[in-house]
Amino acid sequence: MERASRLAGVTMVFDGFTAVHPTDLHIPAGEFHSILGPSGCGKTTLLRILSGFQRPSGGHVLIGGEAVDHLPANRRPTAMIFQSLALFPRMSVRENVAFGLEARGVSKRERIARADELLALVALEAHADKRPDQLSGGQRQRVAVARALAVEPAVLCLDEPLSALDLKLRQHMRSELRSLQKRTGVTFIYITHDQGEALTMSDRISVMNKGRIEQVGTPTAVYDAPATAFVAGFVGEQNVFTGKVTSVEKEFARIDGPGGTFTGRRTPDVALGDQALLMVRPERTGLVDGDGNGSGVNRLTARVEGRELEGPYLNLVTRDATGRRIVLHLANDGSVHPATGATVIGFRPEDAIVMPVAERPVAAAA
Ligand code: ATP
């Protein structure tokens, strides 16, 4: 079942509106791959094209090196789980899981044996005779996964499958799905607009914006080395400053703006005189104490406006002289932090990134 998936120059135009610009994407067999992006960016369309529910305007879909363009969804080595799950309400859990096998001519005995095997895999063997409405949301989710895996797909496509669950269950199901994917070795392609979900579950992430994949990379690469301003802003939080580039040196650039003069690592396309953004993560922005000790050489004065406790972390919300909101993500380790009033904050140049204001989409890596 070592079958890689490839989109080659896939495009989708609906009535003159380009939902997917020419896209190349290669997903090796056995990868947990997330497609992450805001609502309407084309995620579902891309997945529907891959699994055969949508015919693209252009380009090709290859699985295991072979074009599957001519095959309808039910003849492709893919399975798809929709947000609604679409379980059959009058069938038992076991019958739901066995359903796809009947259409493939598998004998009843074998169907039951296979369904029970899959129910054991998702830890639902004790619930085989129940109907879907007698299960919890998380259990229904697992039935949908077992049903999709029954037909032994090379690729399982999941379209925001956890969005209907409450936060706690969603977090639990993240690790369940991830572990199931690793145990079965089936390629999972997982659509989400939730960056936390994508970062925790994926081997690699495609970050999509307005019909284009702007970056493909590991969670670490996407988070620590965003290729575009969109990726930097969409994946995780950023404190953002704007200004004109007044110095460019090796991998660093300095910007001069209303909030102050700051230095950060730069993307290769930053040029002297450009309007640029400087972004730094809240967890890389710190406090500078009265003696001037503390985070980094970039410094500014800000007023503390409030604090938000997030269990192990504390978000200190501040505002600089220009009215810009700057958040510090501090460890909740018992340290005493300023409650209100002016304070000096700072960050290291190597923790900040400078990019041109104009978004220049980066071609997706194959
Ligand atoms: P969401 O997270 O909200 O589901 P998405 O990223 O999955 O969004 P798509 O469903 O792929 O986005 O839609 C991408 C764009 O294409 C949207 O602007 C949508 O309105 C448009 N679109 C999708 N399907 C059709 C269709 N059948 N006819 C016309 N436009 C469509």
Automatic annotation (TrEMBL):
Molecular function GO labels: ATP binding
The domain of life for this entry's organism is Bacteria
Q: Name one Pfam family in it.
A: ABC_tran
Where do the ABC transporter domain residues begin and end?
Answer: 5-235
Quote the SMART domains the UniProt record gives: AAA (SM00382)
Q: Which terms are listed as keywords in the entry?
A: ATP-binding, Nucleotide-binding, Transport
Q: Which family does it belong to?
A: Belongs to the ABC transporter superfamily.
Q: What PANTHER family does the entry give?
A: SPERMIDINE/PUTRESCINE IMPORT ATP-BINDING PROTEIN POTA (PTHR42781), SPERMIDINE_PUTRESCINE IMPORT ATP-BINDING PROTEIN POTA (PTHR42781:SF4)
Name of the protein in question: ABC transporter ATP-binding protein
